[in-house]
């Protein structure tokens, strides 16, 4: 939690220095992210939105790769198929699109289990099949208004997919409060789809861990989907492009800063007898790691012009090849006597 | 489906009903409800779930019931399906086939006969094809399923009831290959899907009047295989592009521009477009005025011949 916050702060600074095009802070939401991230087993798959920096870290994704997209170097950042990245899928910027990919993926897990059992039937709403793995998908309170997020609940309920929906209710969809989005607590919406749901204190990592384990276990063992609404608060801005002082009431931030998940966990650990030296070391190592990440982000190589064309299709495509060749010829026409080329970042 | 057990069918009413056009008739009985999935009535959910299945290694073939209903899924197709291989630096493929019954000629109600093909041909990352013969329908769907890229498979509704020869033993043409459907020497006319039948009718009539029309069937709308078309234009010196969809900012516009750029000195007349008017697809009782027929094609042929 502390490491992620330090990294987060570095990235906000990098954006202010013009080194990142945008940053999406997760400050204040580390509690539910660490609990839920730790609750998943290695074989589980996780589909994030774009603010789940701590979940990414837990699954093995390097912070540096996480920032590459925001530096304008890639639309991805890490190899989802590399086991080192812990089945952590790419960030999705179109709100809610990933809820459906997660549901399809969980349906695939279910179909895999059925194939293994030579079961050719898939009846609507049938009691689940134990799959031994689950899919977890993250989104925010604003996304609960999107059609895609609601359709994914319909599909998950219909096929009883082994998945857990996690809504981090940080109270604000950019400047629109959750009250503008929903007349009912969000977890109660899931009940209307026939999906078990619970609302948790998202600033309590232990609660998040316990409930996350329970729901993921139920999904893996054939008891269908679940839905967790984690009540938390976005202490920072939605992104580095907005200014929360324009839309938040006085005193609200201070109220939530007192309930900061890091402060709360520290207070709890102190009651268990953990001493100052431990906390000092945590903050120091977080600072070191954040600085390492900052330097590495600044040294990430710019993509080559050719990379634009490299993976638009999986199979050869004549127009792409034609345009790739044209750009290569055009760029080489600028080659100087010293062999230098014009480049995307040179 | 028999050849590859990773092929999964999904769509509304494709199970016991066999699809509204009965294209998937009896497949659920043969392969089971875990491979032929009747889905909830939600197009975005169908496409979005297919994307997740593809990430899991499946090869989903999904049915959008009617052309006009593809738009609720437009976001999933254009911002997700088309881009995910690129976003993953090629480490994953998106072998999803989206079957779309499209086009007019069946006298249906609003949203049940449209031609949204150009929206998808405009989108990098997608492949778009449309068969015009039973033989192509037989082969091209199999090739589309084998493709590791997402394929929009536009099925001309007008052709569902037309019979024709299928040769399962002959070697299939490559999926993205233009076909000369009828050779000729005076004018090239090009189209796809049900339009090819109209073009062949026009060629037949023109032949009796002494004009030799070469009919070119695009088959693939993205990528377009331009070489056979350019070869035809270099031979005839004249080109008429015909399509059911609206003419403005369309496939016809793209073809006209490309041919002008690559065969300018062969052209003896401007490239002409015969297309749907730039209006929403009209009520069925006037679709006969909207859809290009052989007469409108021949009118354009006359104009280009007398230019």
TrEMBL record, chain A:
Domain Dehydrogenase E1 component: 2-276
Keyword Cytoplasm: no
Enzyme class: oxidoreductase
Catalysed reactions listed for this entry: N(6)-[(R)-lipoyl]-L-lysyl-[protein] + 3-methyl-2-oxobutanoate + H(+) = N(6)-[(R)-S(8)-2-methylpropanoyldihydrolipoyl]-L-lysyl-[protein] + CO2
EC number: 1.2.4.4
GO terms, biological process: branched-chain amino acid catabolic process
SUPFAM superfamilies: Thiamin diphosphate-binding fold (THDP-binding) (SSF52518)
One protein family per Pfam: E1_dh
CDD domains associated with the record: TPP_E1_PDC_ADC_BCADC (cd02000)
Keywords in alphabetical order: Oxidoreductase, Pyruvate, Thiamine pyrophosphate
GO molecular-function term, one example from the UniProt record: magnesium ion binding
Top-level taxon of the source organism: Bacteria
Keyword Oxidoreductase assigned: yes
Gene3D superfamilies: 3.40.50.970
Named cofactor requirement(s): thiamine diphosphate
Stated family: Belongs to the BCKDHA family.
Function recorded in the entry: The branched-chain alpha-keto dehydrogenase complex catalyzes the overall conversion of alpha-keto acids to acyl-CoA and CO(2). It contains multiple copies of three enzymatic components: branched-chain alpha-keto acid decarboxylase (E1), lipoamide acyltransferase (E2) and lipoamide dehydrogenase (E3).
PANTHER family reported in the protein's UniProt record: 2-OXOISOVALERATE DEHYDROGENASE SUBUNIT ALPHA, MITOCHONDRIAL (PTHR43380)
UniProt protein name: 2-oxoisovalerate dehydrogenase subunit alpha
Organism this protein belongs to: Leucobacter insecticola
